[in-house]
Design brief:
Blueprint lengths: L1 H13 L13 H22 L4 H26 L3 H23 L4 H37 L1
């Protein structure tokens, strides 16, 4: 379990391609089409969870919700790029991973489950702090470039 949390933290820290490099904002029609596509995919992902049983279904639904939230945040960042949008994407990724890991912890019992959830919370808090710190750095860099 800790391997997943560590891998997630590393992925957040190194794998994020910021939307600050995105081109111009999208047209309203393109934005709406992309958002509709995300919502259709989310419905399909949630429907795929229906035949599953017990916690497997809960994990699947948490993954589907996380995927939708992240996709919408990335779309918003693409539409309106900037440090705030990048932070939102990072936060949605952290939140999504946290929700999925919490559900996966439910497969464990007793102290293992409590420890798993505690580790997940620590990783989530760290990812949130890193997202906010990255936003601050981006804003400082942008302010310096404007000067």
């Amino acid at each position: 379990m800790q391997k997943h949390i560590i891998a997630f933290t590393i992925a957040l820290a190194t794998g994020f391609a910021g939307s600050a490099f995105a081109a111009d904002a999208m047209t309203k029609d393109a934005y709406k089409q992309a958002k509709d596509k995300i919502e259709e995919q989310a419905k399909a992902d949630k429907k795929a969870c229906e035949p599953m049983k017990e916690n497997a279904r809960d994990i699947c639904q948490a993954e589907a919700k996380a995927k939708e939230k992240i996709a919408k945040a990335e779309l918003d960042a693409q539409n309106r790029p900037g440090a705030k949008a990048d932070e939102k994407v990072r936060l949605m990724k952290a939140e999504g991973e946290y929700e999925v890991v919490k559900e996966k912890c439910e497969d464990q019992k007793g102290t293992a489950m409590a420890s798993c959830k505690k580790d997940a919370k620590v990783a989530y808090d760290k990812a949130k702090a890193e997202a906010r710190q990255a936003k601050g750095k981006a804003e400082t860099t942008n302010a310096a470039k404007k000067s």
